[in-house]
Amino acid sequence: MIRERLVNGFRNGIVVPQGLIAHGRGEAFDYLLGEKTTKHAYEAEKVAVCLLLLSDKSIISINGNAAALCPKDLVTLAKVTNSRIEVNLFHKGRSRTSAIARVLRKEDTVEILGLDDNSRAILKDIASDRKYVDKDGIMISDTIFLALEDGDRTESLVRMGKKVISVDLNPLSRTAVASNITIIDNIVRAIPNMIKISEQLNKKDKPYLLKQIRNFDNNGNIDKSLLLMKKGI
Ligand code: ATP
Ligand code: MG
Predict the structure, then answer these.
(1) Which of 6, 135, 173, 181 could form an SS bridge with 121, CB 3.0 to 4.6 Å?
(2) CA 219 to chain centre
(3) What residue's CA is closest to ligand 1, atom 3?
(4) pLDDT tens digit string along 4-33?
(5) Is residue 170 lining ligand 1, measured as CB closer than 6 Å?
(6) How confident is the model at residue 118 (pLDDT cuts 50, 70, 90)?
(7) Is the CB of 23 under 6 A from ligand 1?
């Protein structure tokens, strides 16, 4: 069923062929986790929600695969954590960007950034079209939730001093290694989990949320996921 969503997304011009290959990479790691959310992933999801709730300007960066896999949940997560949404593509194209925006808007009325060519800002040290972000979106945000992202861009955002949360099944990818909070889980499980966690945490006070973040060791968490994968093998 999950693959079918991607294939439909490909046919509707939301997913690029490279996205199908990227999904296969993710699946390979997911098999080693038993295709379920581990307690370590859940821990990272919880801390990520704490950070989103504490941030002044949080934004969710959505690519074609993410939009094909869980558009409704992504829009809901943006609402419950008071985050904005930016469409941010590795392989650009105006028609694809608008198709993705249409899919997201079908779920709810949301403001979507990354659509206006006149609102472009440039990420440092990145060649090609991948360098563009929205000057009123990712560029001015303090916390960026990367719902599937490439390593070059993740590293650039971290260098800019942004707090970066990522969902990536590959614990060894540059995205996973560079992020401040790395969620090693399938996006189709991570986002619904985070919505539920937000509903539980949004009544907690600031010191509680801060404490969760302070006590979190991202590298240690990645190591634990790697050990579980080793057991999976
Ligand atoms: P990097 O650029 O970060 O070093 P990469 O070049 O291998 O890694 P990209 O194509 O840039 O990978 O990013 C896609 C990442 O998303 C891959 O690491 C892949 O494992 C992961 N991925 C693919 N599908 C999913 C999914 N459904 N849930 C979570 N992660 C996924
Ligand atoms: Mg990459």
Answers:
(1) 135
(2) 18
(3) 151
(4) 999 999 999 999 999 999 999 999 999 999
(5) yes
(6) very high
(7) yes
Can you tell me which atom of ligand 1 is nearest the CA of 154? 3
Model confidence, pTM? 0.97
* Residue whose structure tokens are 């060791």: 217
Ligand 1 pocket mutation pick from 2, 10, 16, 25 by most atoms within 8 angstroms of CB: 25
Per-residue model confidence (pLDDT) at position 33: 96
CA atoms within 13 A on the CB side of 140: 9
CA distances from 52 to 40, 48, 79, 96 (A): 18, 6, 11, 27
179-216: pLDDT as tens digits: 999 999 999 999 999 999 999 999 999 999 999 999 99
**Tokens 């294939």 found at:** 7
State the distance from the centre of ligand 1 to the C-alpha of 37, rounded, in angstroms.
Answer: 17
Residue 94's identity, in one-letter code, is R
